Each structure stands twice: as C-alpha cells, then as structure tokens.
Amino acid sequence: MAVLSATYRRDLEIRRYPSLVYGLVPLVALVLQAWLPRVLGRFAWFDLPLVVTVYFALGRRSPIQGTFMGASMGLFEDALSHHAIGVNGIAKTVVGFLAASVGVRIDVENFTVRLLLSFLLSILASVIYVFVYRFLLGMELEWSWLIELFKAIGNSVIAVLTFPLLDRLQIRD
Amino acid sequence: MESFFVRYRNLVVLLAVLLAQIIGLAVQVRRIGDGRGKLDPGDGPGVRLIRLWANALVSPAERAIHGSKLGIGGLWQNYIDLRHVREQNQELQKTIDRLRLEQASMLEDARQGQRLQGLIGFQEKYIYKTVAAQVFGSSGSDQSRVFYIDKGAGEGLDRDMAVITPDGIVGKVRDVFPHSSQVLAINDPTSGAGVILGTTRIRGILRGNAAGQPEIVGILADNRIQPGERVLTSGGDQIFPRGLPVGTVEKVVRDPERDGFIIVAVKSSAHLDRLDEVLVVTSTEPRFSPADQHEIATSETLKGPEAAAIHDEQVREQQARDQQKASEMMAEHLPGLIDPNLPPDQQPLHDSSNPNPVTNPPRALHPDRFTPGIADGTTATDSTAPQEQTPKAAPEGKHPGQIGGSGKPSEKPTAKPASSAPAKAGQSNTPRRNP
Predict the structure, then answer these.
(1) Which residue of B has its CA nearest to A81?
(2) CB contact residues (below 8 A), chain A span 68-127, against chain B
(3) Is B65 within 8 Å of chain A by CB?
(4) What Cα–Cα distance (Å) separates residue B223 from each residue in B199, B218, B227, B228, B264?
(5) Does the pLDDT value for residue A17 go beyond 70?
(6) In angstroms, rounded to a whole number, what is the distance separating the alpha carbons of residues B80 and B424?
(7) Partners of residue A34 in chain B, C-beta under 8 Å
C-alpha cells in the first residue's frame, strides 16, 4: 500500500514542460556559462548547467532522465573546455541521478530544501570532479576549496532565484 | 534476470552511463612514466567531433549576444535599473536614457575604434603576418582558462599559433574550428611558454597557477632577480616569436615542492581578463612593408657596383704600394748609375769596365701590365703613356723602360726638369749606393 501511494504521489507530482523548454533552457545555461565569465571575470562563481540539471532532475523525478540530463550537460561543458571530455559528465551524471532520486522522496517545493539541495549537490559535483581528475585519471589539477565553496553558494542563490521562474514554464493541467 | 533489470534499471542506466564516460576518459588520457596521467594534446576524431558539436551549438548564440550587446548588463541598464526613475519622470528620463545610451554607445565605439587603431598600427608595423580576431566567449570554467575568437580555419588559423596583443602575449591557438578557434591563455596551468628575463637573461617556462596568475617555474634560486624586471619571450618554444613582451616580475617566492628552486610570479603585460581584440601570428616569415622592400631592393642594386668600385680602388692602392716597394728594393740592390762625387766623364755610366752596362732593355713583343715602364691602366703599345704621366721625366724618343729602371715612372714625378734621362732617373728615385 505504501509503495502504491508513493508511486501515485510520484506520478502526481511529475512536472511536464513544453519540448522547447527542454532544449532551450539547457542551451541558454551553456551559453551563459560560457559568456558570463567574460563579463564577471574571476567572480563567476556559479555553474548554470549544474543548476539546470538539478532543477529538471528534481522536477521530473526520474533518475534515468536526470542521469542523461546531467551527462549531456557535463559532456557539453567538457567539450567547451580543453580538458578531457567526461570529467564534468561523470560529476553531473551522479548529481542528476541523486537529485532525481531525492526528488521522489522529499518535497522539493520548499525554499530551504532547494537551497540546501543545490548547495550540497554543488559540493558533491566538485568532489567528484576532483576525485575523477586527480585520482581516477591521475592528472594534476590546481584548485581551491574556497572557490568551490563560493561556487556552491552561488549555485544555491541562483537556484533559489531561477527555480520559481522555471516553474512558470511547466505545463499545468 | 529480467526482473533484476526492471527493478534496478535506474542503477543499471547510471552505471552504464558512468562506464561509458570512464571508457571515454581512458581513451583520451594516457599514463606517462611516473604513473601520472596526461591528456593527449591532440584530440582524437571522436573527441574532436564532440568539441565541434559543442562549439557549433554554443558559439552562434554567444556571438549573437556579444555582437548585439544585449547581455545582462544591457538588460540591467535598460530596464531594471531605470524602472524606478521612469516612474518619477518618464518623459524626461526617456530622453536622458536615450542620450545616455547613445553616449555610452558612442563612447564604446570610440574606445573600440582606439583599440582597433592601436591594433592595426601594431599589426602594420609588426614584422610577422597576423590576423586580427575578436574574443567572444570563454570556457566558463575557472579551471580551464581558454577563450574563443571569431577567426578559424577559414581565415588561415591553425593549431599552436601565437595569440598576442600590442601589450604582450596572450596564449596559443589550441583548437581550430571552421570560423572560430579556441585559445589557451598563458595563465592556464597546462600552458607553457619559453621566456627569458630581460636583465639577468635567465630562461624559464611560463605557466599559470591555480589563481590564474602567470609564473615562471624551473628557475634555480638567484638573488639577481628583482621585482620589476621585464619578461620576454625566448622563442625557444617555437610558438611565440622571440622578444615579445610577456610582463614584469611581480615577486619571487621559493618553490615549496623543489628545494633550491624559485617561482617567479609575473604580472602579465596583456590584460588577460579583459581581452576584446587579439592578433594571431599566422606566419613567422618576416614581412616587410612596401617602403622597406623598396629600400632593400635599392640597397641590393647599389651594393654590387659600389662593392666592385671599392674593391678596384683597393686593388689599385695595393698594386701601387707593391710597385713602390719593389722599386725601392731594386734601387737598394742595383749598382748606382750616377756618383755625385765624380765628374760627369767619370760616371759609372761611361765606365767601360762596368760589369753591368746600362743597355736599353729589349722591347717586349707582347707587353702587358708587368712590362717595365707600362703604367697601370695604360696599354702596352702606348709608349707615350708614361711620358704623359711624367712629361718632365721621360724625354721624347726614349723607351719607357729607360726611365730610371724603376718600372714606376708615374709614382714620383719630379718637380724640376732634368738634363738627361738617367740623371733624372737617379734623382727621382731613392738615393743609390755606388757599387
């Protein structure tokens, strides 16, 4: 009975968006992520593709879709850099999967939950990135925990601001 | 078995996606000697295809934003920041806004014009062929300090071409797409440029650190390196032409990982975080302006005759010196023809006992310039030539060889007329010793 109710609740709260949104929003995130650092310089402490991944994973509540969304966003980010393609992909794949899995179980409409989830998943993405780069691939990577912390805070703030705007794009019955 | 995949399909999909990406990474990264991984600098066809797709997807939008200047800044200035003011005095503010925008636009255009003017001036004066390009995007990651420019393979760009500004070097082309290129900045940790310190002439490798500041590594501790010293490209990396400005030494710190070595932090000459227009060095063959080419051609044309004239003059002077020396030696060793202490009828010239009577030398059948009495530059058959050069030294009808026997009648023309040719010859030469 509990399983049935959970499934029912899950089906009830799955969000649907126009097809264009699935294509445009990630694209805008990628473009802005590539363009804004030119404007903001070294203060570009955010990762918009990660925010978008978390949003759609939480909204769709499908770990498989979250996985593919994270993988594609991460791979595109890697392709725009000169690093090996797949490092960001792995990090965001895990983040997408976890966000969708968490979205099934908790109420993601709550302001604090969104803030905390974005923060924690950003930190997790950074950890996975560093782990894959330094330990899995054995390559040298110079990075700073402080910057990763700022980035996680930036992602949380952006998530809190943009999630309500993106909520307006969903299809309502 | 089927129920297993159905039940754990989420995990199976996750693991499959992760595995695929790990395999992809393994293809790109290879182990080097010390067990560390190293990214293959040349992308494989598949990886390059993905980068091409990503670039094709993101670049047009990025260029559109950059070109139309409708970024977040524009949105802020034109709407959010002015909303409250517009409520107070809408009409007046509209006018002011329009004027401000026009002014800002004109100012920006003027600044851009100045920048481009400086860039073109540098490009014209610079000896190597360059292509001007505009920066329109970045990687979006502070761990990958690359940026994109709006020129690519279609404009003649290729990998590993140097990217510079009039202020200093910026980076090198890392990847080339049809109409855009990816440039690796010099402050990226994976970049490398051969540099030399301007005063101490110490060489090193420039790369970026985690904070995005260029630094020179691999230098032994040296007290001579002081802040403010200029840093130039050494040309040893075969990418950046030699002598381009890189920056100035900001500070010198000890290398925490290597004893005895130091790290020289460099303040970049080029504004790496505010790049708008750059130059890509497409050819390191020296390029000269039309004026320079004309001067070089003129110099080449004049060089031959002038050199020949100088050479001829030197040969003539040398021959003259040789002849002078030979005549002096002969004068020292040959018996004297005139003894100033004897009366004229007892001179050795009239002494029949003289074992070396003076006789007219036989005339050469084929005279040349070595024939006695033939001056340099005169023909052998022109027997009057010496007379013309020393009209008072050679009486008419005399053979040139009779004049003093020195073989150089024109070297020392006498000032006074001589009563006889031998007497004249004896006076015109160096003093002679009697036998």
Answers:
(1) B139
(2) 68, 71, 75-77, 79-87, 89-90, 93-94, 97, 101
(3) yes
(4) 13, 15, 11, 14, 12
(5) yes
(6) 114
(7) 58, 62, 137-140, 148
Residue of chain A minimizing CA distance to B46: A85
Query: How high is the pLDDT of residue A72?
Result: 92
Most confident of B23-27, B183-187, B394-398, B418-422: B183-187
Phi, psi of B250, rounded to the nearest 5 degrees: -95, -45
Out of B24, B65, B137, the one facing A86 most closely (by C-beta) is B24
Q: Which helix (H) or strand (E) holds A158?
A: helix A145-167
Note the Cα A52 to chain centre separation in Å: 5
Q: Is residue A113 part of a domain?
A: yes
- Rounded CA-CA distance B244/B234 in Å is 8
- Distances from the Cα of A100 to the Cαs of A105, A113, B43, B146, B205, in angstroms? 9, 14, 33, 32, 47
| DSSP code at position B80 | I
**Domains in chain A, number:** 1
In a domain, A173, yes or no: no
**How much is the ipTM here?**
0.85
- Per CB-CB distance under 8 Å, the chain A contacts of B143 are 81, 83, 141-143
Domain-located, residue A139: yes
User: What is the C-alpha separation between B232 and B244, in angstroms, rounded?
Assistant: 5
Phi and psi at residue B230, to the nearest 5°: -75, 145
Pull the structure tokens for residue B71.
């970024």
Is residue B231 within 8 A of residue B215, CB to CB? The reply is no
Structure tokens that stand for A154 in this block: 């930036």
Element (H, E) at B176: strand B169-176
| CB nearest to A75's CB, from B50, B140, B273 | B50
E runs forming strands in B32-116: 37-39
Give the pLDDT of residue B401: 40
Interchain CB contact of A40 with B (< 8 Å): no
For chain B, the domains span 130-287, 290-435
Domain boundaries, position A34: 2-167
Assess if residue A57 is contained within a domain. Answer: yes
- Per-residue pLDDT tens for B74-104? 666 666 666 666 666 777 877 887 788 888 8
Residues of chain B with C-beta less than 8 angstroms from the C-beta of A68: 13, 17
Closest CA to B395 of B370, B419, B431, B427: B419
Superfamily of segment(s) B130-287: Rod shape-determining protein MreC, domain 1 (2.40.10.340)
Enumerate helices (H) and strands (E) in chain A, giving the number of each. 7, 0
